[in-house]
């Protein structure tokens, strides 16, 4: 997206919602990370399908699908894909939405309570 288009989009969103620059920047970064994960997922699927079917056509052996080495690239790359997914979506999966913010408020309230006791 070009810089001018980004600026117009930001101005439109800001006028409609009243969000700050920082909030917009954080949301924009999050969307870019999610888009990067989905791009990674699509490349993973396409490349691994190509590799598996390429092995099948080169070997002319229908038994190739039952051999473990056929799926080795998909398996090890899949570990990386899962790690990428957890880095993008993991905090929400394990801790829920705004977990950090809630915990910070909780500890601040605890600290305030202990000061006055």
Using brief descriptors, characterize the structure shown:
117 residues, mainly alpha
Characterize the structure shown.
With 117 residues, the chain is an all-alpha fold. It has a domain at 36-116. It contains 4 helices and no strands. Helix 2 (21-59) runs antiparallel to helix 3 (72-95). It is elongated and about 70 Å long. The model has no long low-confidence stretch (mean pLDDT 80).
- How widely separated are the two ends? 55 Å
Query: Mean pLDDT score, rounded?
Result: 80
Could you tell me the radius of gyration in angstroms? 23 Å
Share in β-strands: under 5%
What is the number of E strands? Answer: 0
The computed structural class is mainly alpha
- Count of alpha and pi helical runs: 4
Note poorly predicted spans: none
Largest sheet: none
Order of helices and strands: HHHH
From the spread of the alpha carbons, the general shape counts as elongated
- What is the helix fraction of residues, given as a range? over 70%
């Amino acid at each position: 997206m070009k810089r001018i288009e980004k600026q117009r989009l930001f101005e439109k969103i800001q006028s409609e919602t009243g969000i700050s620059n920082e909030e917009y920047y954080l949301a924009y970064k999050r969307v870019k990370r999610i888009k990067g994960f989905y791009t990674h997922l699509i490349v993973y699927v396409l490349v691994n399908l190509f590799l598996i079917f390429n092995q099948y056509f080169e070997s002319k052996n229908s038994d190739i699908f039952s051999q473990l080495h056929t799926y080795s690239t998909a398996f090890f790359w899949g570990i990386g894909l899962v790690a990428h997914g957890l880095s993008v979506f993991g905090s929400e999966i394990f801790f829920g939405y705004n977990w950090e913010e809630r915990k910070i408020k909780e500890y601040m309230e605890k600290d305030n309570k202990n000061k006055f006791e």
